[in-house]
Amino acid sequence: MTATWFDWKGRLGPLRLRLTDTVFRPSTVTGLIAQVLEVEEGDTVVDVGCGCGILAIIAAKLGASHVHAVDVSPDVVEVGTANAEEHGVADRISFYRGDLFDPIPRDVEADLIIGDVSGIPDDLAAESGWFPDGRGGGPTGAELPVRMLREARERLRDGGRLLLPTGSLQDQGTILETARTLYGSVRELISRAIPLPGQLMAGRALPELVRRGVVELSQRGSRYLWQARVWELTAG
Ligand SMILES: C[S@@+](CC[C@H](N)C(=O)[O-])C[C@H]1O[C@@H](n2cnc3c(N)ncnc32)[C@H](O)[C@@H]1O
Predict the structure, then answer these.
(1) Atom 8, ligand 1: which residue's CA is nearest?
(2) Which of 47, 54, 173, 184 keeps 20 to 30 A from 61, CA to CA?
């Protein structure tokens, strides 16, 4: 396990964060979620797909009474706990390694879920270098977020909220259709056009995903852009 450092300059930053080669490096989308993250004093928060714990730490600093933070990364407990200790909130965050909500005690009922699991097609994920294990959210990038949305509904109190990032690099239509079926209200909070990185432009996966309508890009001059969005779902 090789530890590296990352300087978070987003909300409540600067914060120095420990990473390892199995832990996701916070991204532009992390920054968007942090920007719209609202926590009521005393909320119970679940952060699923927590990576190094940055959003869990921000939620704790904003007043959560407890944050349950899960990731599949083998280093999540060690890295997340070290980061939470460094920033004075370790007594209010529990880190777990596992699949989605499996490791979280059954009696935990969340006021807020941050649902930021990997959500781009597996073939793109393998070429992107964004995910330490090289895996995305399934063949269209919708499969894992849809499973997360179904399980989250069981863990969210009535009236509770879920923050859901989506992107035009995945089958957003299927994810949003599931969200509208399961949740009373689905509201877009923020949207950002992000330049497509060179390795995806040059890769083999993109043309086929665009042809099939899974991925949608826009163009500004010679640059291609994808659209990231963060939604607020309310359980009703
Ligand atoms: C886009 S990253 C976001 C990480 C973190 N929220 C951040 O913004 O820095 C998605 C995270 O979901 C995790 N993940 C993927 N599949 C998962 C699963 N089935 N259960 C829990 N976490 C998962 C990945 O390891 C990765 O850390």
Answers:
(1) 30
(2) 184
Alpha carbon nearest to ligand 1 atom 11, residue = 49
Whole-structure pTM value: 0.97
> Two tokens at 122?
């597996």
Ligand 1 pocket test, candidate residues 36, 116, 163, most atoms within 8 A of CB: 116
The Å distance, Cα 52 to ligand 1 centre, comes to 9
- What band does 2 get if pLDDT is binned at 50, 70 and 90? confident
- CA nearest to 18, candidates 75, 59, 101, 95: 75
Q: Please determine, for residue 109, whether its predicted confidence score (pLDDT) is greater than 90.
A: yes
CA distance 148 to 115: 7
Give residue for tokens 């679940």.
Answer: 46
The closest of 20, 80, 28, 78 to 49, measured between CA atoms, is 80
CATH-assigned architecture of domain 4-193+228-234: 3-Layer(aba) Sandwich (3.40)
Under DSSP, the state recorded for 206 is H
Tokens representing 26 are 């916070």
User: Sign of the CA dihedral 231, 233, 125, 131?
Assistant: positive
Q: Write out pLDDT tens, residues 131-173.
A: 888 889 999 999 999 999 999 999 999 999 999 999 999 999 9
- pLDDT at residue 154, rounded to an integer: 97
Find the residues whose C-beta lies inside 6 A of ligand 1: 24, 26, 30, 48-51, 54-55, 70-73, 99-100, 116-118, 144
